[in-house]
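The passage that follows is intended for readers who have already worked through the single-chain material. We present the inputs for a multi-component assembly, then the predicted structure in tokenized form, and finally a short commentary. You are encouraged to pause after the input and sketch how you expect the pieces to fit together before reading on.
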Amino acid sequence: MKELNKDMLKLAINNLPQYEPPHTLWQSTNARLTLTELPIYDAPEFVWQNIENQLSETQNPKLLTQNGQILRGGNFYKFAVAASVALMVGVGFWFFKFKNTHQNNIRVSTEIVDNQLIKNDFGSDDETFAMVEEFCKTALPVCEQPDFKNLKAELDELNTAHTRLKNAIGDYAANPDLIDEITKIDNERTTVLRQLVEKIN
Amino acid sequence: MTQDVQNQLIAQCIAQERKAQQALYDQYRRAMFTLAYRITNDFEAAAEVLQDAFLQIFKSLSHFRGESTLGAWIKTIVVRTAYKHLKTRILFQELPPQYEETVLDWGDAIDIEYLEKAIHSLSTGFRTVFTLIEIEGFSHREVAEMLGITEGTSKSQLFYAKKKLREILTEQS
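Having made your guess, compare it with the prediction:
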């Protein structure tokens, strides 16, 4: 490219106007500079000690009885076995009633419980899930519908994931991350189950 | 400002002395605000750019090694800040160069007011490259590095910016 009279452009550029920023700009810049210079305080040592104590408690959960006694080790397992037996009797009664009446009245509800309790109570609905499977074996037409089958497939996947996690957690349930994960899966299973039940009913 | 005075000013700014920081700001505010305005095409945006750029300047002044002049270093920060501030990314299209057969004649005189308006009517890409090279004196290599484009793109943008400017100036006169 050839430029003729480029000096004229240079001259014009040199005379282009300059602009003043608003007078308040330095004031707000000054304020922002002050903010960046605010002191940073160190946390008192007891804060970490408290955190550490809380973490230890989370890793070694305690279960309190009504009179404030801490259930640990053998006591805890006795409590768990008793709760399981009670649950199985309840479920057996319900199943018996269901078989005799031939009514499709399955209901599922979700309630928010104490986090500590739910961590130690995962998988308590296993029997209920198994019964839904039994129910479907008696072959209602609804069980053959595509959306029902999709939900059922989803439930099966969640069940598989639940079993794997349960095996990974083992008997002592000491890993909070895994417990949280299995709790999430249980909640999802409940949701899917609720949808299945709605279709059955 | 002598080199010694400037070095002292820099040292005081690094030590967070507010008066020195304000002195540095006052020294460059007009030129840098104008540069930010030419890139953003908006006074409000230019003010935001100037503030952000000076905060960055004060924060990183201790890293200034004197490899360029302080003014050039500050200018680069303002350009980068303004470029980042543009709401829409500039699409620098690689345009077919027609350098050789084109002749641009700037005539006997250019009306400053017209030129100013013409610059602001250019597209963001054309305006930015024209401002940085013709007004601020950056090289194509420096512009390419700052804007993340090739030198070829910078050259073709400048060519078409000038061509467009000439057309606008002809229409206005």
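Commentary: Strands of chain B lie at 103-105. The longest strand of chain B covers residues 103-105. How closely did your sketch match?
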